[in-house]
Specification:
Chain lengths: ~325, ~260
C-alpha cells in the first residue's frame, strides 16, 4: 500500500464516542441552580435544548445569552430561570418578549434578576472566561448609566501610558465560566469535532469558557467528512462533552443551508407572549406535551417544513493538498 | 399617512429609511443594527450610495442578497456574501479597531447631546417599560466615527432631557468620566418630522430640515427641550418614486418589509 493511502493513525477521530440523546445530555449536564449558557447569535439558536430543559423541569438557573429571545422567554415562562445575563432582551425585530417584560416590570409571577451588558461586554466576558483571565478591557461604558446598575462593570487605570503619555482609564468586565454551554451546529463527528458555517457568533469562545459543553447538531457525519475540511471545525472534540443529534433543533431560528428562519413564528410569539395563559397553553401543547424534539418536528408537519426549505448554494471545494 | 407614486400607502418607516439612506452619500463603511437601519442602508446601496460597504451586526460584510433582507440575520445576507466574521472579530477588531465610518442606531429616548436610552422607561428597579437594552449600541456609539439615529416617534417623551437612563453615551458624557471615545457621537437624527444635526463634542443637536408640510414650530413643540434651530432650515425632498428602489429586484413585497412591527 502506498504510504499516502494509509490513515495517519488508527482509532476514532476525536477519541471517545460522545453521542447521547438530548434527554440524557440535559439530565447529565444541566442541574438545578446551574449557570447555563445558550449561544448562537440569531442563527443556530439551541431551542430544542431549551425545550428539553423545560421538559425536565429545571429550576433556579442562571441563563447567559447575548440575545435573549424566544427560547429564553419560554424558559422564563416555564419557571426555569431566576437570573439572566444578557445584552439584548427582545424578540429580534419582531416585537418584545411578554414574559420577560412581566418578570422585570412587575415581578409577575416572580422577580427576575437581570444583569445587563452590551454585546461586546458579553463577548469580552466569554473571552476572559475561555482564557481564564481575571478580566477583559473594552472601550465601552464611559459615561453610561450601566455601571451604576451593574457593579461588575468596573474601571481600571491602564498600567501603560495612553497615546498622549498620560494615564488611561478603561472599563473591564469579569470572566464568565458557565457550568455548561449548549450550542447548535450544522454537523459533528461522533467525537464532537463540530463544524459550522454562516453566522458563527461567539459559540467557540462560549464553549471554551464553560466547564462542560453540549453540541447539538443537524446531522452526525463520518470522520472523513470532518477531516476533508478541518478549517470548518470551529469547536474541536477536546472541548465537547456530549454530541446530540437533533435535526431542525434550532427552529424558529435557522441553520444555514438546512432550513430558513421562521419569521412568521417570531411575529406570532410577540402576540402569544402577551398573554400568560396563552404561553402556558403553548408550552403544554408544543413542549411539555411532546416527548422530544422529533415529536415537535412531526407535529409541525412536513407541509410546514416545506415552507422553510432552502435551495442549494454549494461552496467551491478548497484543495488542502497532500505530500507526494 | 401619505401616498406613494403608485397610490400605495407610505409608512413612516419607509419615509425614514429613504431620508436616512440619502444621508449616507460619501460615507464608506456603515454598521447596521436590527430594524430600520437595515432598511436604510440597503436602500442607500440601491440608490444614492452604491459603493458603501455595509457591515451587519450579525457579522456579515459585503452582502449581496438575492432578496431584501428582513433582519440582520436573514440567510440571504450570508449566501453570496464577501465575508462572515465572528463576534470577537466584529466588535473587537472591526468596530473597536476603528473601521466603521457611520453607525446606525435607534432608541426609545434621545437627549440634546445625542445620548441614547434603550434600556428602561422609568426607574431601573421597577421600570414602566423594559426595553431590549444595549445590543451593540454602546460599542457603536463609542467607536464609530459618527452615528446616525433613526427615531420612529418625535415626541417630548422620546426627545427628552434628562433621559430616564443613559445606555449609550455620546462623547461628552464619556469625556466627563475621563474616557476618550473614538468618534463624534450622534451627528444626524432622522424623524418623521425632520432632520437634526450635531457637529460633535460640545455641540447640541440643531434642527436643519423639516419634512414636507411640517413647520419649525411643530418640531420644537414635539421636542422636550428648547431645541436649537439652524439659520437656514431646508425642507426634506419628497421621496423618490417607489419603482426605483427595492421592489424592482426582490420578490418580497415592500409593504411587508416596511410594516411597523
Amino acid at each position: 500500500m502506498d504510504r499516502t493511502d494509509r490513515p495517519h493513525r488508527t482509532g476514532r477521530t476525536g477519541g471517545t464516542d460522545k453521542v447521547m440523546t438530548m434527554k440524557a445530555a440535559v439530565a447529565a449536564f444541566v442541574h438545578d441552580g446551574d449557570t447555563v449558557c445558550l449561544e448562537g447569535f440569531t442563527h443556530l439558536i439551541p431551542t430544542a435544548a431549551g425545550h428539553e430543559i423545560i421538559r425536565q423541569g429545571r429550576r433556579d438557573l442562571t441563563v447567559v445569552r447575548m440575545t435573549a429571545d424566544i427560547v429564553v422567554d419560554q424558559m422564563l415562562a416555564a419557571g426555569c430561570v431566576s437570573r439572566l445575563v444578557s445584552s439584548f432582551v427582545g424578540n429580534s425585530s419582531a416585537g418584545s418578549l411578554g414574559n420577560l417584560r412581566r418578570r422585570i416590570e412587575s415581578s409577575d409571577p416572580e422577580p427576575l434578576a437581570f444583569e445587563e451588558y452590551s454585546h461586546y461586554g458579553m463577548v469580552c466576558r466569554y473571552l476572559a472566561g475561555s482564557q481564564r483571565l481575571p478580566f477583559h478591557p473594552l472601550r465601552s461604558y464611559g459615561g453610561s448609566d450601566l455601571p451604576r446598575v451593574n457593579s461588575d462593570l468596573r474601571k481600571v487605570t491602564s498600567p501603560y501610558p495612553g497615546p498622549d503619555g498620560e494615564p488611561e482609564q478603561i472599563y473591564v468586565v469579569p470572566p464568565v465560566n458557565p457550568d455548561v454551554t449548549i450550542i447548535h451546529a450544522q454537523r459533528a463527528d461522533r467525537g464532537g469535532n463540530t463544524q459550522m458555517w454562516g453566522l458563527t457568533g461567539v459559540q467557540a469562545e462560549a464553549v471554551y469558557a464553560a466547564r462542560k459543553a453540549i453540541v447539538v447538531v443537524e446531522e452526525l457525519v463520518d470522520d472523513e467528512v470532518v477531516r476533508s475540511d478541518p478549517n470548518r471545525t470551529l469547536v474541536p472534540a477536546h472541548a465537547v462533552h456530549a454530541v446530540v443529534v437533533c435535526p431542525r433543533g434550532a427552529h424558529p431560528s435557522f441553520a444555514q443551508g438546512y432550513y430558513d428562519r421562521d419569521n412568521a413564528f417570531y411575529r406570532a410569539w410577540s402576540a402569544i407572549s402577551q398573554d400568560p395563559d396563552r404561553i402556558q397553553a403553548w408550552l403544554d401543547e408544543w413542549v411539555r406535551g411532546t416527548a422530544d424534539h422529533a415529536e415537535y418536528v412531526a407535529k409541525l408537519g412536513e407541509e410546514y417544513w416545506a415552507g422553510l426549505a432552502v435551495g442549494e448554494a454549494l461552496s467551491e471545494p478548497v484543495d488542502y493538498g497532500r505530500r507526494l | 399617512m401619505t401616498m406613494g407614486a403608485q397610490g400605495t400607502p407610505v409608512t413612516s418607516s419607509e419615509l425614514l429609511s429613504v431620508v436616512a439612506s440619502r444621508e449616507l452619500v460619501a460615507r464608506r463603511t456603515v454598521f447596521a443594527g436590527i430594524g430600520l437601519p437595515t432598511l436604510a442602508t440597503e436602500l442607500a446601496q440601491l440608490t444614492v450610495a452604491p459603493e458603501i460597504e455595509v457591515v451587519y451586526e450579525s457579522g456579515v460584510c459585503g452582502a449581496h442578497p438575492s432578496h431584501l433582507p428582513e433582519t440582520i440575520a436573514d440567510s440571504v445576507l450570508i449566501t453570496g456574501a464577501e465575508a462572515v466574521i465572528s463576534m470577537p472579530t466584529l466588535f473587537g477588531c472591526v468596530l473597536q479597531g476603528g473601521h466603521i465610518d457611520v453607525g446606525f442606531l435607534g432608541a426609545a429616548q434621545i437627549d440634546r447631546w445625542g445620548n441614547l436610552n434603550t434600556s428602561v422607561i422609568g426607574e431601573w428597579d421597577s421600570p414602566a417599560v423594559r426595553l431590549p437594552g444595549s445590543g451593540g449600541g454602546v460599542e457603536v456609539m463609542a467607536n464609530a466615527r459618527e452615528v446616525f439615529v433613526v427615531m420612529r416617534r418625535h415626541t417630548p417623551h422620546s426627545f427628552t432631557d434628562p433621559l430616564d437612563f443613559c445606555t449609550a453615551p455620546g462623547p461628552d458624557r464619556a469625556l466627563a468620566e475621563g474616557i476618550r471615545p473614538l468618534g463624534a457621537g450622534v451627528t444626524r437624527v432622522i424623524t418623521e418630522l425632520g432632520v437634526l444635526a450635531r457637529e460633535g463634542v460640545g455641540h447640541e443637536l440643531r434642527l436643519v430640515a423639516v419634512q414636507p408640510g411640517v413647520t419649525v414650530g411643530q418640531v420644537r413643540a414635539a421636542t422636550g427641550w428648547d431645541l436649537q434651530v439652524a439659520d437656514a432650515v431646508t425642507t426634506v425632498e419628497p421621496r423618490p418614486p417607489r419603482s426605483c428602489a427595492c421592489c424592482a429586484r426582490t420578490s418580497t413585497p415592500a409593504a411587508s418589509i416596511f410594516a411597523e412591527p
